[in-house]
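Quick sanity check, Lsm C-terminal domain-containing protein:
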Amino acid sequence: VTEEGVVEGTGPVAERVKRIYEQFVSEKKKPSEA
């Protein structure tokens, strides 16, 4: 699933996937949690 696919998607499923993707990216940017 590409970033564009998530943005183009609509509905609760797409929102959930986008939320998980953003959380994954935010966690990756935190070296303290790793």
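Posting the structure with no commentary besides this: The longest helix spans residues 12-28.
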